[in-house]
Amino acid sequence: MNLGVLVSGRGSNLQAIIDAIEAGKLNDSISMVISDKEGVRAVDRCLKHGIPYRVIKRKDFRSKEEFEKALVEALKEAEVDLVVLAGFMRILSATFLGHFPMKVINIHPSLIPAFQGMHAQRQALDYGVKITGCTVHFVTEELDNGPVIAQACVPVFPEDTEESLSERILHHEHRILPQVIRWISEGRVRVEGRRVVVEGARYGTLPFNPELEDF
Ligand code: GAR
Known about the structure:
This protein has helices at 12-22, 41-49, 64-77, 94-99, 120-127, 162-185, and strands spanning 2-7, 29-35, 53-55, 82-85, 104-108, 131-138, 148-155, 189-192, 195-198, 205-206. It has 215 residues and is of the alpha/beta class. It has an 8-stranded mixed β-sheet, with helices on both faces.
């Protein structure tokens, strides 16, 4: 598949995809990275690895609609098959999603439907849960919702800070995101209403799924 990756900042999930491709674990290529921010680390990663990228900023457009039109054009030009939101901090409209039906996935640092939106890790700490994690899901119009493809869980320790918890979750983000891309690439992912079935995979959740050990 040609992957289009949308980013807003650090780009460590983008790096996890790059690493999986370079290690031969993914047979896909990144044909376009779009950042809605200038001068972010995600862009440096593109430069370092020779990956085509564009910076498309919301404030350069009069409306969200025009901004999204530019995103769609860039992704279509690059013949993108799957759009991956990897730390992209914007909500996409139904119009955007209509261009890529069930072809947009997102990584979110909680076990959705818990702690959607910003600062999911801090929300988990403040709420006092003992387990949290991360989710890869198909993107729908609802914020950080949509059919769940894979999740990984981690413990929350009493001494955790937002940083330590984020780091523990991030380790698993970097595993489940490439894993899901591979499942989709292999044509094994089927959506039945809210449920996602991955052919040949008994569980979509760490630590139970041995297949995830690949990543
Ligand atoms: C990641 O933790 C990702 O799950 C989160 O932003 C971070 C981006 O890090 N995304 C969301 O909160 C989406 N609602 P990265 O730029 O290093 O990949």
